[in-house]
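Re: the 611-residue chain
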Amino acid sequence: MTRWMEMLLSGIASASLVVPMLSIAQSASNATSPHAKAAREFRAYLERDWKLWMEQYPEAATAVGFPGQNRRWSDDSPDGIEARVRHLHESFSELNSISRAELPAEEQLNYDLYRELLQTAVEGLQYGDDPAPFRDVVPGNLWMPFTQMGGIQQGSASTLADMPHQTVADYEDIVARLEALPRAVEQNLGLLQAGLKKGYTPPKLMLRDVPQQIAGLIPADPLASPLLQPFTEFPPGISEADRSRLIDRAKKIYTSAVAPAFQKLHDYMVSTYLPACRESIAATALPNGAAAYAFHVRWQTTTTLTPQQIHEIGLSEVKRIRAEMDRVVASTNFKGGFHDFTEFLRTDPRFFYEKPDDLVNGYRIITKRIDPELAHEFGKLPRLPYGVCVIPEFKAPSQTTAYYQPGAPSAGRPGCYFVNTYNLHARPKWEMEALSLHESVPGHHLQISLAQEMEGLPEFRKHAGYSAFVEGWALYSESLGAELGMYKDPYSKFGQLSYEMWRAVRLVVDTGMHSMGWTREQAIQFFKDNTGKTDQDITVEVDRYIVWPGQALAYKLGQLKIRQLRTEAERKLGTKFDVRKFHDAVLESGAIPLNVLESHMARWMDEQAAH
């Protein structure tokens, strides 16, 4: 075992939350135990608290399919934020009043996980983090509500598009939410002003595309706005009279209130906010920045590894993966060195589509090739379907190559694998298989949908998104390509290794920029030196790490843990090892901290060995 793996394992083992995990079937069998009354009261608290949090965050309610909140936006006024903070403390106090010892073992896990979520949210308040305990459902810093990656200039259109739009009542909800949008924009303007006073701003360079993102929401033609996209197509059950009425109402609200609100935000961003933003890129440049970065690293990775330890793991992984990449290059009989090869991959026309529709269809073909192969790797597959969607034009330049947006089984909304058609010569064919395995199946769609469809568990377990698990699983899924019939040519195999290298590089450059004084240019150059990714991708990625400190560390650390657990299971079980059962066991409890996963899989291995 190498030193970096020792650090990884010790970092996970020393985390605070190590509890036994029972299956859902075991939970049901204990329904009549002496602890049943305590369990029912605890579940009632969780159900009540979930409802209250969904009322506090209507956008999240829409995203997960929680009903009744589709006319509202989160109240980001000082009073609204104070109400959320107050509820967080009240909820934490109520949880602490519940006797963990009186709960059955399976509910003790729910207790421990929920307590950790609330405790993390409380700790994050001092750094300006939003008080939401479901930090991957509602991420963000209240004092820096805008980045090139997110904010109301992006989330408003997405939320309106995600709303149900099958009936006249659904469209009335959209109109009502549209009517409430100017107030939400004004509140976000207030957050920007409060952040300036506290010394919290994103780096100026990172916001270079935000004015254009805002302007893209408010064209002269209302129906050309992404905000009114639901009104450009109606289901067949809505009459022409209702369509005309709804469109007219939406256009009037847009023209009289929505567009002026976003125009005011745009003007403030350009004239006042951007000039006042900081030049530095490191999280440590913010007030209490070093402590905030260390906190976010712990939260995102669910380990106690320090930034320096993670940096060293990254360097070791870069070295290991580079050796594999060199072997693939040699197999192609390419005449030239590694950097000549990556330049060839970045520039040769054979590796790029000329039309956006061809790129999108290429992704769809890949996903449909993967789908039937999943039965060889998994015993349980999700019921919820997914599709390939196109990232909206107004935000595509600042977005990554692709991302997954979860569906909502309760609302009948499928998952969506969003792909970027901006700048086609930054979207090489050789990366498409690895990317699809990560973002759709067996990566994000499969894992997240299975979690949403779990039965017998509280709602927070279905939607909590521990990045180290969620992103670690998606990166591990990329490595399953050969088992699923992918990577049959050396360029796609190099693409998979380049993607794994990309996540190893993240460990180095994220910690480098935020805790070791690296410049943005150093990070970009380290990327170029070690991956085959295009300049557009590299720039967007590095800028993402700058505004989202620590999040990018979750991928590689999570993947290393899952891969280590598989290696251990194969060694321990020998001929009894069944990859379908292994994958089902990893996914059966939803997203959980890495140390809890390790405990769960250790017990699973013991059970399998005893059979």
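Residues 1-16, 18-29 have pLDDT under 50 and may be disordered.
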